[in-house]
Amino acid sequence: MSEELDTGFFADWLRAAAAAIDREAAHLTELDSPIGDADHGSNLQRGFTAAQAALEKEPQDTPGALLLFTGRQLISTVGGASGPLYGTLLRRTGKALGDAAAVPLPELTTALREAADAVAQLGGAAPGDATMLDALYPALDALDAGSAPGDAFPAAARAAAEGAEATVPLQARKGRASYLGERSVGHEDPGAASTALLFQALATAYGEGA
Amino acid sequence: MKMLINVPEKVVPDALRGMAVAHPELSVDVENRVVVRRDAPVAGKVGLVSGGGTGHEPLHAGFVGPGMLDAACPGEIFTSPVPDQMVRAAAAADSGEGVLFVVKNYTGDVLNFDMAAELAEDEGITVGKVLLQDDVAVTDSLFTAGRRGTGATLFVEKVAGALAAEGAPLEQVESVARRVAENSRSFGVALSAVTTPAKGGPTFDLPAGELELGIGIHGEPGRERRPMMTSGEIAEFAVEAVLEDLGRTGPVLALVNGMGATPLVELYGFCAEVHRVLGERQVPVARTLVGNYVTSLDMAGASLTLCRADEETLRLWDAPVRTPGLRWGA
Questions:
Q1: Is B275 a catalytic residue?
Q2: Do the interacting molecules here have an ipTM over 0.90?
Q3: Domains of chain B with CATH codes
């Protein structure tokens, strides 16, 4: 029988994600300076912190409800492009999970992939445009290849980090960095970097819970 | 970098508290970040709603008032507001005649306003939308987020605001807004980088003796960097860039806009050069506005916006307006 991930695990994941973004906020903003408008870290920090505070007041009782609620909070607090994009990622994942009390890995992977496609559609971006998708899709491929959370989550974290690093030589084709044309080459995409943090948090939350 | 602030996280609410006390004719909701004409909704009038990141003052909140916007929603510094703010603004501005969203073409603004339009329509508010994409420095192609909305926003808010004040229906207000947007082009230069409160230092490094051509209004660096040029040379470059894209044109509205840290004396000097170059190109200037209107925090530099202006546009441009940032005839 495959192992299932319960609401407690997803709450740990979101807490770990908020902590990672809090810790790396200055770094994300630094990445956003030469090619964007120097606020990616502070915007996500504000959103994830607000979502944690809202969850404390209104705890959610299924993984789906928890992700849906957090996604809505991000849409309402982050602003910019990151708010709708990250909000949609979590909201659509939550929606796809339905009202199950616990979720096996393959279902989570399928839900995340559905959500990733929604994010790609919303932003009109494709892999290779130097966006968050360049960390997101490699991470999902790693989840697909994994057999259990214990190996799949760390593999996804590595794949996302590598995907983010791989945006360095790319020319940005979406978002504010695209205004720079060729001058956007040589910079890591801040959105890909923050996506890598989400998957790192997934591995951390699982490792600490195990 | 020294800044006249308390803490970076409170820059936006602090400014809104200031607007509230300085402008009792506006209703400023500091907590929900919505600025509305106190007499909104105005019966029988289409509501004009705009919004965007903070840091471009007086755009947009400073253009709320009779003859221009009914409501504005300021986001964080250089960050699009969220759909909740826009829906609240739309509800406050809607008299039943519908509202027009004036949206600058940035990924975040477009995504959030799209979500807001859907939510507002769920609440029974008819929503029209005009997208500003006047910055010729960005190559509009499948490989960019498309042209940025900059100085033309002021033209659209003023002209569409005047038509709405006359009681025109939403389709007409939307159509004049679109016409002004389509007939406007902008080009900006930076003499210094911008300092955001979140970062506390310049967002890019612009050495002394160099300028950045084709900058945006968020501290994004431009497409090209050159050794410093004279005001006359910059005017030639900017006019050329704008006209090359706008094409042949009769009379124009001209906005000579400061980015925030360039003194008016320099802007007027630049304006003289812009007029000289336009004269040499046989382009008559029907109206000129000089000042800091669509700014980028403490950036030094200027932008030029030209709008091909027909008689109706000029009539609506001249109509009375009474807002914190722009007022005449009223």
A1: no
A2: no
A3: 23-183 (3.40.50.10440), 184-308 (3.30.1180.20)
